[in-house]
Amino acid sequence: MKRIIVVGAGVAGLTAAIKASDNAVVDLISPDYSERSQSVMAMGGINASLNTKGQNDSSEQHFIDTMRGGCEINDVDAVFKLTNDAPKIVEWLSKIGTNFTRDSYGNIDLRYFGGQKKQRTAYAGARTGKQIVTALVNQCRKYEDYGNIIRHVGWRFLSLIFTDNNECVGVVCVNEDDGEIKSFVGDAVIIASGGLNSLFGKTVGSTQNDGYVTAKLLTQGVQLSNLEMIQYHPTTVLTPNKRMLITEAARGEGGKLYVMRDNTKYYFMQEWYPEMAELMPRDVVSRSIYKASSGGEKEVYLDITHLDKDTIKVKLDEVYDVCTQYLNLNPIVEPIPVFPGVHYFMGGIKTDANHKTNIRGLYAAGECSSQYHGANRLGGNSLLGAIHGGWIAAENALLENPSGKIIQKETTLPTQNDVRLAEIMSRSMGLYRDDENLNKGLDELSNMKETPIIILAKACILSALERKESRGAHQRIDYPKTVLEFEKTSNVLYDGEINIFFE
Question: Which residue from 42, 270, 294, 436 lies 20 to 30 Å from 113 (Cα-Cα)?
Fold first, then answer.
């Protein structure tokens, strides 16, 4: 029987393990339990053109919106597959026990989300991620009972294992409790390790997703892409420990953004973008908040006080909890002070429509994988992309038949990230970038000890320097126009030097 190695146990890793376990034994490796993965934090919903609202929605329209949101540098084949499969995925999630909110007819309810004119986002209150993780964990446990999925919790990735034919057949991991180093070998490896949060310190994401896996893969010859494309979520709030998300669902339900101007509430999105207002794509809303706040000098508020109490306490329950527990603020009667924060990494491990990397036997899915979102991810497409990615990666990983002999395995332990890294990256790779700050950041990184994470950080900055235009999440003050020449994916390979190229 085949053996598949899955690194990461969020929704991408869980889906990959479940889908592969019908025809293989799966080693599911993660530093913590699935219930503590970043997937649990996904509040707003998952996109699928279920077309139950009489709006003539379709997978074709979902495809168009996704490509447009990504500024046309998404992988066309991958996005076509994603949007076509979306209804099937949501139906499967419902079948295995995801407790979606239902409309008065019993259909899975749909809401508006940014960058989309159709009600296309299925949701479970404001706790969609938690509901989906719960359903997937329960499904996973069935296969664990059968012995088809073997859980390895408390293990952190160190390195890939290759054959002499440069096939990937496994991983080396370290046990965080006792320091034991162990090899996991199989027929193929699926990486589902999440985003690169530690590069920026206080993001809205999980600290478990430190980016080391992607960084190490880069140094082992794995191709990355679009590292300059970092999504700042428009509406985050600062708490004592980190930034926390105020879900886009608050705007989908009718929340409005304003600043005070001449002692009057100025609803800037409604004036600047009257057709879609607060439901413009996230990069546009983030830049608008930055502009309206005069670069952070004025407070910007998200106002949901005009919504009825049931909408806030039921459909937006997580927003209500975040505000009351962490901000000592009641959103039923008070506006929420918000500002953009690092939220999602569109770039990462380059994969094709089958979730293959440039290394045979190695696949990637979820936020660590780059192909669906281009220059800007639509809200509701992250959970979809992660589940779809895990599903497709599993189907293709089962086809692998490695033939080479295993070569020497690396066992070097990762070093702790330098505390200066987040400050350097936040300054040089913010909402707006320019040559001076990018080069300054690169110089500062060059004076630090060169670890995989530092190499990855340099690759992000070099990608931003080489993309001499403004597109989606990448905004250059010194190159403000979008240029047809750069309607391509940026790519990174490492061979002792960082090589950036477009294709």
Answer: 294
Mean pLDDT to the nearest integer, 202-206 = 74
Instruction: Tell me which DSSP letter residue 413 carries.
Output: P
Write the single-letter amino acid at 33.
Y
**By mean pLDDT, which of 217-221, 239-243, 469-473, 484-488 is the weakest?**
239-243
pLDDT at 38: 86
Give 92-120 pLDDT, tens digit per residue.
Answer: 999 999 999 999 999 999 999 888 999 99
Q: Which residues of 31-76 form beta strands (DSSP E)?
A: 46-47
Cα 327 to Cα 412: distance, rounded to the nearest angstrom: 42
User: Given the structure tokens 């109490």, which residue do they identify?
Assistant: 309
Tell me how far apart the alpha carbons of residues 352 and 77 are, in angstroms, rounded to a whole number: 8
Place of tokens 């696949």: 363
| Nearest Cα residue to 93 out of 366, 330, 387 | 387
- Residue 235: C-alpha distances to residues 11, 342, 375 (Å): 24, 10, 19
Q: Can you tell me the distance from the alpha carbon of 119 to that of 129, in angstroms, rounded to the nearest whole number? A: 19
Q: In a 3-state reduction of DSSP, which class is residue 60?
A: helix
Rounded to whole angstroms, how far apart are CA atoms 199 and 211?
7
Q: What is the pLDDT of residue 205?
A: 75
Segment 261-290 shows an average pLDDT of 94
Verify whether residue 471 is a known catalytic residue: no
Calpha distance 43→111 (Å, rounded): 13
**In degrees to the nearest 10, what's the CA dihedral of 39, 129, 305, 203?**
0
pLDDT digits (tens, 9 = 90+) for 2-44: 999 999 999 999 999 999 999 999 999 999 999 989 898 888 8
- Gap between the Cα atoms of 94 and 136, Å rounded: 11
Specify the pairing of strand 230-238 against strand 243-245. Answer: antiparallel
Q: Which of 156, 282, 377, 471 is catalytic?
A: 282
d(CA 258, CA 92): 40
d(CA 253, CA 118): 13
The span from the first CA to the last CA of the chain, in angstroms, equals: 39
Question: Looking at residue 208, what is its pLDDT?
Answer: 76
- Name every residue whose Cβ is closer than 8 Å to that of residue 69 and which is 6 or more positions away in sequence: 115, 281, 373, 374, 376, 377, 378, 472
DSSP string, 153-192: ETEEEEEEEEBTTS-EEEEEEEETTT--EEEEE-SEEEE-
The secondary structure of residue 414, as a DSSP letter, is P
For residues 345 and 175, give the distance between their C-alpha atoms in angstroms, rounded to a whole number. Answer: 27
Kindly write down the DSSP assignment for every residue of 208-276, as one continuous string.
T-BSHHHHHHHHTT--EE-TT-EEEEEEEEE-SSSEEE--THHHHTT-EEEEEETTEEE-HHHHH-TTT
